[in-house]
Write a structure and sequence with these properties.
The structure holds 2 protein chains of 2 kinds. By secondary structure, chain A is mainly alpha-helical. Chain A contains 8 helices and no strands. The interface between A and B is large, with 43 and 43 residues.
Chain lengths: 203, 488
């Protein structure tokens, strides 16, 4: 399976998937691919490599394990209860793939390598945040967005691995760990973690 | 980062933690205020080591950071029960503890200092991201559902926004590297501005648009403002003051720095046009929404969107005068909005509500009501407050730029906001309230340090009126001409 197919399938699973673990696995695939692409540029200095190693560990292992731990504590969160039906989610995934291909064909942006993949992963991350009403899906969406940014950094500014890794990881991890802390506080009031029920409780 | 600058940045965090070594009660409260004062004074270390614009914002951050800490520590009841500050203690979250509150406040203050003393976009961006770290918990500090929802919305929308800013920075780094800039300085605005660029206009526009849109999300500009009214109205009053008065200013500072590189990349006109219409939308949209608000803190939060819009509008008008107007407005608004939220906090603790329908007769009940009236007048742009001067300058900048339609629409928004603030002021100050406390039981008597902090913020909002003609004005003019430099 080549890189593009792997990214396409993982991105589609983010949008279409309804089980938290499947969606999380799709994110891990994207994070591993993004880290693998930026790895060569991280070998230029010990500092860059140290940051790369640490952030890869956080993104690929620690953050997913945090979510798995949370799922064990809150079994109802294992299902994302998507707000769109399966056919609509499939259509959206296809729409995102078409939009990413269209962005890659804009002549002014043609010089950016792998633009189609970058746009696809970023749009999938945003798509997850838009179509899912589940708070845990939002956390995974933020992580996927971080993977998209790492991909963009690997292609746009490979000479700046520290900035790329620090930026993408900080964004994703701030979202994940603060997100999980907030989700945990909210789970005490609503184990379904549905953003609609959160809205109904507004004071 | 220079060791002195690093010390100034770390001081607020250290000042938040050191008082934990002192015994609980009055001694710890005094230690908190003294340590915060020392941290604010440590900002002097950055003088001469950063440019005028960074120094101005650092002083603003530290002055209001100190006042917010003093306000928080000065509460007579706060040390005993956190619920008195945040609501029902039964609903509080794991982090709803006084010591955690001050640690988060110190982290927030330090993170904002990182934003304004950074000399490149990487550090500036990390600082903005770090503010989210502390403030998400501060917004959700009460732990009840409404606060958690506000914190969640804030976290998700701001994370998306700053992710866009990061994408823009990566495109900018790509352009810098293409121009032959050393990777170590590829995101330094002084290096980028000092180099002739032959950048692809489309990529330059993409970089600047992503960065401005990303930072504008943190500044709460319409249409990326959805998180702001909830977050700013649900946070504890001193935190709301800092969020509205200073954090929004830090995001606007990031936009100002983006304008510097937009000029160097030859897309200054595009960047200013984008800001101009963000400004018009924010002023008009927020002004109209202010007319239908029924909660005092929510009204103040929408007023923040309106004022962020005025700053964006002034930057959009451009030129040295427009940029100067924007900087004066940032300073005047920071003090006025902090004082308004502090006063709203005093009123909330006195009356146990911020519902406009239930707040009446504040003028007769004590100093908190009078302080709130002053703050509302300041925010409405009435003389002798600084916003009166800065809004006048923005109007002149619009006339000089010959942007009559944008100016007309923005003035309509400002008129809506003025009407909403005036109506709220008349409603809450007039009439009688059966629940008015006696002067001795007034919150001003119970928490004099908090009252002094609110009073000092209001004094700052008044003093800002003299900014253009003072020594500060010279610094502001120099910063404004440096930003507007290549295009005027």
């Amino acid at each position: 399976m080549n890189l593009e197919v792997a990214v396409l399938l993982a991105g589609a699973l983010l949008i279409v998937g309804a089980r938290t673990l499947y969606v999380l696995a799709a994110y891990v695939v994207l994070a591993v691919i993004a880290s693998a692409l930026i790895a060569p540029s991280a070998l230029v200095s010990p500092t860059a490599f140290a940051i790369f190693a640490l952030t890869t560990l956080m993104k690929v292992i620690v953050a997913p394990l945090g979510i798995v731990w949370f799922l064990r504590e809150n079994p109802p969160a294992a299902d994302l209860h998507p707000s769109l039906a399966l056919p609509q989610r499939l259509l959206l995934a296809i729409g995102i793939a078409v939009a990413a291909a269209a962005i890659a064909h804009v002549p002014a942006l043609a010089e950016i390598p792998l633009l189609r993949l970058i746009a696809y992963v970023v749009l999938c991350g945003i798509g997850m945040l838009v179509v899912h009403r589940n708070l845990l899906a939002h956390v995974i969406g933020l992580l996927a967005l971080g993977a998209g940014i790492t991909l963009a950094g690997a292609e746009l500014a490979p000479q700046l691995p520290e900035s790329v890794e620090l930026g993408a990881t900080f964004d994703a991890l701030v979202g994940t760990f603060i997100g999980l802390a907030l989700v945990r506080a909210f789970a005490a009031q609503n184990p379904m973690l549905d953003v609609e029920s959160l809205r109904k409780l507004r004071g | 980062m220079n060791a002195f600058v690093l010390a100034a940045v770390a001081a607020p965090l250290v000042a938040a933690l050191l008082p934990l070594l002192t015994p609980l009660g009055q001694a710890r409260r005094r230690a908190r205020i003294s340590a915060a004062l020392a941290a604010a004074l440590a900002t002097a270390f950055v003088a001469g080591r950063v440019d005028g614009l960074s120094l101005l914002f650092a002083v603003l951050v530290s002055t209001l950071g100190f006042l917010a800490t003093t306000f928080s520590a000065g509460g007579a009841i706060f040390e005993r029960r956190v619920g008195d500050l945040v609501g029902d203690p039964e609903e509080s979250a794991a982090w709803s503890r006084v010591s955690v509150y001050f640690a988060l406040l110190g982290t927030f203050w330090s993170a904002m200092l990182v934003v304004v003393v950074a000399q490149n976009f990487t550090l500036l961006w990390l600082g903005i991201s770090a503010t989210t770290l502390a403030t998400a918990f501060l917004v959700g500090f009460a732990g009840e559902a409404a606060s958690l929802e506000a914190a969640w919305k804030y976290l998700v929308l701001c994370s998306i926004g700053i992710a866009f800013a990061l994408l823009g920075m990566l495109v900018l780094a790509h352009l810098s590297l293409q121009a032959g800039i050393d990777p170590a300085h590829a995101l330094s605005w002084t290096t980028i501005a000092g180099r002739a660029h032959d950048a692809s206009p489309a990529l330059a526009r993409l970089a600047v648009a992503l960065m401005i849109t990303g930072f504008a999300t943190k500044a709460g500009l319409v249409p990326m403002h959805a998180w702001l009214p909830d977050a700013h109205s649900k946070a504890p009053a001193p935190v709301s003051g800092l969020l509205s008065g200073v954090l929004v200013s830090c995001a606007l500072y990031a936009i100002v720095r983006t304008l510097t590189v937009a000029g160097a990349l030859g897309v200054d006109a595009f960047a200013r046009e984008l800001l101009l219409w963000f400004g018009v939308l924010s002023t008009l949209g927020a002004g109209a929404l202010m007319l239908v608000q029924s909660d005092l803190k929510r009204l103040l939060a929408y007023s923040t969107v309106e004022h962020a819009g005025i700053v964006a509008l002034a930057l959009g008008f451009g030129g040295t005068f427009g940029t100067l107007a924007a900087l004066v407005h940032v300073a005047a608004h920071a003090f006025a909005k902090s004082s308004a939220f502090f006063a709203a906090g005093l009123v909330q603790r006195e009356r146990h509500t911020t519902s406009l329908g239930q707040l009446h007769g504040l003028w007769r009940s004590g100093g908190a009501g009078k302080m709130l009236l002053g703050s509302l007048a300041a925010l409405g742009g009435m003389p002798p407050f600084g916003i009166f001067v800065s809004e006048l300058m923005v109007v002149v900048a619009g006339v000089l730029a010959d942007r009559w339609i944008a100016l007309g629409l923005a003035l309509a928004g400002i008129a809506f906001a003025f009407a909403a603030l005036t109506r709220a002021a008349i409603d809450i100050e007039s009439g009688r309230s059966g629940k008015a406390p006696s002067p001795r039981a007034s919150i001003l008597a119970l928490a004099p340090a908090s009252a002094r902090a609110a009073g000092l913020a209001l004094a700052g909002a008044t003093a800002a009126a003299a900014a253009p003609w003072s020594a500060l004005g010279a610094v502001l003019r120099s910063a404004a001409s440096a930003i507007a430099g290549s295009n005027t």
